[in-house]
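Notebook B, p. 112. Complex prediction, attempt 2.
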Amino acid sequence: MADPTKRNGEDGQEPTSSDDANLTARLKSLDARIDQASAQRTKMTESQSRSKSDSSALGQAFRLSAEFVSGVVAGGIVGWIVDHLFGISPWGLIVCIILGFCAGMLNLLRAAGLMKGARYDEKR
Amino acid sequence: MASPIEQFQIKPIIPVINFTNSSLFMVGAVAVIVGGLMLATRKRALVPGRAQSVAEVLHDFVAGTLRDAAGDEGMKFFPLVFSLFMFVLTANLLGMIPGFFTVTSHVIVTFSLAILVIGTVIVYGFVKHGTHFLGLFVPSGVPAWLLPFIVVIELISFLSRPISLSLRLFANMLAGHIALKVFAGFVVALLGAGGALTILAPLPLLMAVALMALEFLVAALQAYVFTVLTCIYLNDALHPGH
């Protein structure tokens, strides 16, 4: 019993060879569990840090509002130009502002990451 | 009390060549960037000193952002993206010095920067991919009867990009500087009011200090957002197929 790190059997006897095998098996399973847990943790912190760097909440809020407004404004400008080119005032403006509203919503969904890219066919 | 929007007035300095205070601060920002970076990288030590570390961190930061968004192929746009980031960041931060003019609080400045980015995207997209670049507006898997609407919406969505890019930066800088000026004005007004109101004067001062910190955050954040979106749009030019 001079070596305190040496593990004894439950009843205080000298460790036997079957006891050793038991120990290595337990160590191995413990190692596997630690690996699993640490892998999970790095994955978690990674996703956490990514969402944090993407969206300091204030920046996100400003970004989303600008995305939506700019869609409507762009629609309005296109409508105004269409009206002037074809002389169909006010229909170009009306239609294009509605379409601009849709474009703004599209921008918004894309910026918020609710729709990856422009895959319309993803959900079919 | 001075008007809170007086700080955005453009005053000619050399009227003959239309050199205004805005132009002066643009030139100033460029001088700060070029001078600062030249000074920082003068020694080119293997183990960087303080100034050189700052320059290297800035470089790696922008390079990392660009590589994340547009891949290794996007690195050919690095000079453009780095110049844009440095110009916007420096102009924003220079504007935070009291009495200085904020170049990016004028929509025409940010809009021309955005047009530069979108112009690059369009020109490069057509040169590299030809008419295939138009595939950006025609997403796959849409039913035929819906396609005309989708194409128009995608087109408007694309046209709205320079607007949103410029609007965001300009609105943030404008609103922040006005808010700062308004709260600073409250301090003066309360002190002048006399009586019990004078005691309240430190309250807006505290607010102004807090806003100042927020403005520094916004200045850096908006430069970063501008850069990230530039990278994302450049990615569209590189890979127009979705």
